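hey can u check if this looks right to u? its 329 residues, i copy pasted from the old doc so theres a chance i mangled smth
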Amino acid sequence: MKIRFGCILLAWFCGIFVLIQRTGILGSSPLPLGKILYMPPFLAGATLLGLCGILSCIGRGGRGKERRWLLAAGAMFLVAALWTSYLTRIDLDIVLTEGQSVAVRSDNLFAFGGYAGKLARFPQLYLKLDSLTPEFSADRKGLQRLKATFQLLVNDGSPMRSEAREMTSWPAYRHGFMVSFGTFGYAPRYVLKDGRGGELDSAFVALRLFPADKEDYFRLMSPHTYFIRYFPEGKSGDKGPLFSLRVARNKDLTLNQMVRLGDEVAFDGNRFSLAEVKHWTRFRVVRDPGYPLWILGSLLLAVGGLRQRLAGRRRSVIEAAECRDPGVA
């Protein structure tokens, strides 16, 4: 009874912890489930819950010993999967613009907001986004399909392979890495010049400018903040592409006007233009040696739970028959 009560308390703790982290109701930013699973409080609670479940299954006597051992084995595999993933998992979040490539190594892994377990082995990974093809709804405010063509290479002597996938497709699998993508946006290339026309800086910047009435901003190494809206089809009768550009210096608005591709605007002794626009998406690259253990543990729990349920229904039928006819055994 004490073990079962402990299991209930731990299950409540894990569930409430996930709910708090997912919703951010205590003021923190909502976190994805993949990060919550490997946070120390959840890791400790889930491990204790698994151990309590194992002890509860194997410590009981009577009938159904085989079914309880299936449940206990499932719980053991899930605990092992949790710790295997925690120690060896690699999880990367990479934003790429069309034509952009990136080489991910162990020394620059965290520059991509990635996670790597303390025992993770990471070969060099090369990823390039060749093209991104969106299909919009009739009003161009929704994204119906998104197709990406990208190249993936793992530094293990194998040749580079080009992949063509849709956002809803199964992830591409390459030497233990699963590669998927989602999210869509526009990446304008800005050009910043000094008052004499000398180029100071130029780069693509991935912004959330979809749909057309959505505004996003970026900052450079200056006190200016650039607020942009993008209208690919134009606005108010003016043919596109058009940009709504606002430039703020600290809290003062220094520029607010509509501009076209290549138009230069001047402010505070600088010249600024938007030269071209490309698409961008967010890739997720994962290698998790714990996945086979997750699958095996889940299957054992499902089979054990199903057999437990069928046995319970069989006992209910027998008991009902014995109540109607005491002579039935």
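The longest strand covers residues 177-194.
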